[in-house]
Every structure is written in C-alpha cells, then in structure tokens.
Amino acid sequence: MVDVCVLGLGTLGRATAALLARAGLRVHGVDTDAERIRGLAERKDVQLEPGLSDLLAVALQAGLEVGTTPVSAEAYIVAVPTPLDRDRAPDVAAVWSAVESLREVAPRGALVVIESTCPVGTAQAIAATTPGLLVATCPERALPGDLLGELTRNDRLIGGVTVDAAEAAAALYRRFVDGALHLTDARTAELAKLVENASRAVQVSFANEVALIADSYGVDPWVLRALVNRHPRVDILRPGPGIGGHCLPVDPWFLVCDRPQQTGLIAAAARVDEARREAVVERVCALAEHREGPIACLGLTYKPDVADVRESAALDIVRRLLERLGERIRVADPYAPPLAGVDTVSTDEAVGDAALVVVLVAHRAFRGLVIEAEVLDVAGVFA
Ligand SMILES: NC(=O)c1ccc[n+]([C@@H]2O[C@H](COP(=O)([O-])OP(=O)(O)OC[C@H]3O[C@@H](n4cnc5c(N)ncnc54)[C@H](O)[C@@H]3O)[C@@H](O)[C@H]2O)c1
After folding, report:
1. What's the confidence (pLDDT) of residue 134?
2. Is 214 found in the same domain as 171?
3. pLDDT at residue 112, as a whole number
4. Domain count, the chain
5. Are residues 135 and 243 in the same domain?
6. How confident is the model at residue 43, as a pLDDT?
7. Which domain holds residue 144?
8. For ligand 1, mutation pick of 9, 12, 102 (most atoms within 8 Å of CB)
9. 119-153: per-residue pLDDT in tens?
10. Confidence bin at 98 (pLDDT 50/70/90)
11. How sure is the predictor about 187, in pLDDT bands with cuts at 50, 70 and 90?
12. What CATH number did the domain enclosing 114 receive?
C-alpha cells in the first residue's frame, strides 16, 4: 500500500504528487490519459512551470510511480478537471469517475481529498456514497507561472465532511505546505474557493467596464485609472482584453448556476467580459478600416509572461480578428505554444511594417519596443 494516490496528473496533480514524493511519501500518480502517463514515465512530458521538470525528476528518482489505475493507499487526492458544460453548468463527471475508480481499491478508513474545484455540497455527496472513507476538500489557490512556490507557500483551506477528515487531511498537507492550514467544514471550503474566484472575476470585469466607459468618452483609460487610484480607498485593477485562465471564467458560473437569485453581480461580470472582448474587436476593425497594411497583434496568453493560453481572452480576440480581417492580422507571442489556426511570427516581424499594433498581453518582452505605427494598447504595456 502506498501513502498517497493522486488521481489526475495535470497542472495541479503532477506538481502535488511530486511535492509529496519529495517530502518522503510513497506516491502513486494516476491519469486516464495513457499518453500523459507515458510522457511522465519517460520524462518527456513538457513542463511549462518553472522548476517542475527538475522536481519531477527528483520525485521519480525518489520512487514516484505513475499509472492509469488507482492502487490501495492511505490517502487519495483527486485533481481532475471540472469544466463547464455547454449550458455553463459545472461538469463534475470526472470527479465522480475518479471517486468510482478509487472506491474499488481504497481500504476502510482511507482519506479522500478533493482538490478539484467543485460545486458546494460535492464532498458531502461523495461521502454519502463512500461509507468508511474520510472525505475532505482542499481547494487550490495556485497561480500559473509560480505553481510550486504557491503550492508550498500559500495558506490552504481544509474542509472536512467530518472533523476527523479535516484533521487527517491537515496532517497530510502539513507534509509539504509551509503556509497556514485553516480547518473548516467541507461546504464552507468549497464555497470559499468559488467566492475567491468570483471576487477576482468581478474586480477584473469592473476594471474592464471602467475602460469601456473611458473609451466611450474618449478619455484615456490608463490616465483615468492612475488618477482614480490616487483616492486612498480606491484600487481599480489594470484593465485588459478580458477574463482568462482556466479558473476565473469558469468557477463563478458554479455559483451562478446553483444560486441564480443571489448572483446578479457575478453573472453581470461575465456579460461585461463578453462586451469588453467584442469592443476590442470592433475598435481594431474600425481602426483597420482607415489604414492599409498589416495589423500586428501582440500577445496570445491569458496573462503576461506565461505560456498558458487556457480560456485566453487575447487568443479569443485574435481568432475573431482573423475571421474578420484575415491575412492582414500578424500575431506574435514569445511565450505561447504552437496553436492550431493561429500562425505566429517574431515580434519584430509582426511590428515591422504594421499599420496598427494592438497590444493584448503585457508581456515583459514587449516593454521598450519602439513602434512607429499607431498603437492600441489594450494591456497597458506602454501606460
Ligand atoms: N491548475 C491550477 O492552477 C488550478 C488552480 C486551482 C484549482 N484547480 C482545479 O483543479 C482541478 C484540476 O485542474 P488542472 O489544471 O490540474 O487540470 P488539468 O486538465 O491540467 O489535468 C487534469 C488531469 O486529470 C486527468 N483525468 C481526467 N479524468 C480522470 C480520472 N477519472 N482519473 C484520473 N485522471 C483523470 C486528465 O487526463 C488530466 O491529465 C480542476 O478542478 C481545476 O479547476 C486548478
């Protein structure tokens, strides 16, 4: 029997499995994607997170095993995807499928920790179908680009369906988390995770709405923000092309779907997000109409200085622009991975003889660029 079996070896699961193995635990990682397992076992999996390749090498050396089926373990960590379905409702099928698979091998008294972001009540529902197992939820707050640092440094919420479950989960996480562990019940922990991301989504949308308002008045949104933030109790976030990443555009909908009567503001934030994307596309098309020549779009990722394009607003905008303006669009992003249907060139090539440069992501690499053409600085690189 191993100490921990981690189900789901994606962004979160493989880092968690590696950290546990480095802490000296016997860890078995499971993924239903055989290709991913092969890549990990042969150390060929591409790791975009700083430090993760080295950590995985250490963990595999230390005995981290990987495979496609769960084994008997003292504890299980479930880190499988929980996306939205077509109706923007949470799809937790992978969580249930993972629980189903571990139920067949888990010994009585084993701990099951759900790390996947889930609707409120999921851990309780799982506990009801897994008598004899301790069920807890430990939602993750990690930031892509500094995943390992955040996984070890950040405070964690540990929500137990029972007090015993919370304490068992805390004992496990203490093995690799330096941040404080806050024990609570499972429903509170699940709701806290959703509220954290809803809060950030609403604040990003507010910043983007202010930029929309400023643009409509012909006022520079960056100057406006700088002046407004001189108020001692106002701190508007930086506007951008829209909400991206795989958490913020998704998680708030878990609440909207479950509590439509109480989530007017959160639902409105999502509508503002669409308005912002569309406004950027319309603005570029309007500017393009009065110019001849290529239009450079700088940035495809969902935020600066990472290679992550999941739910990226910049990528969405570029795709819409490619549909509208076709070959006039030239795209550059020094970080983004190759993407179907979006050919990229170097930044210099994109900017070279461009008639208009649209900055969609505030990558550090774009700072200091000398651009002769007109610039639409959506991300505020030059602000
Ligand atoms: N990545 C983050 O930084 C982050 C932060 C906070 C919360 N979360 C949440 O954690 C969960 C996992 O996120 P992720 O980014 O690691 O996802 P991911 O898509 O990168 O990886 C999930 C992995 O789970 C595997 N999988 C699917 N069904 C499975 C099953 N039944 N058994 C075993 N493996 C299975 C998939 O093949 C995939 O490799 C999601 O709920 C996400 O919302 C992620």
Report:
1. 98
2. no
3. 98
4. 2
5. no
6. 79
7. 2-179
8. 12
9. 999 999 999 999 999 999 999 888 888 899 999 99
10. very high
11. very high
12. 3.40.50.720
Question: Which of 5, 11, 38, 100 to mutate for ligand 1's pocket (most ligand atoms within 8 Å of CB)?
Answer: 11
Tell whether 372 is covered by a domain: yes
What secondary structure, in 3-state letters, does the chain show?
Answer: CEEEEEECCCHHHHHHHHHHHHCCCCEEEECCCHHHHHHHHCCCCCCCCCCHHHHHHHHHHCCCEEECCCCCEEEEEECCCCCECCCCCECCHHHHHHHHHHHCCCCCCCEEEECCCCCCCHHHHHHHHCCCCEEEECCCCCCCCCHHHHHHHCCEEEEECCHHHHHHHHHHHCCCCCCCEEEEEHHHHHHHHHHHHHHHHHHHHHHHHHHHHHHHHCCCHHHHHHHHCCCCCCCCCCCCCCCCCCCCCCHHHHHHHHCHHHCHHHHHHHHHHHHHHHHHHHHHHHHHHCCCCCEEEECCCCCCCCCCCCCCHHHHHHHHHHHHHHHHEEEECCCCCCECCECECCHHHHHCCCCEEEECCCCHHHCCCCCCCEEEECCCCCC
Residue 48 has pLDDT above 90, yes or no: no
Residues enclosing ligand 1, CB less than 6 A? Answer: 7-13, 30-33, 36, 79-82, 94, 97-98, 115-117, 140, 142, 144, 246-247
Do the domain assignments include residue 187?
A: no
Q: Are residues 145 and 171 in the same domain?
A: yes
Active-site residue numbers?
A: 193, 247
Choose one of 154, 179, 204: the last residue of a domain. 179
The fraction of the chain above a pLDDT of 70, given in percent, is: 99
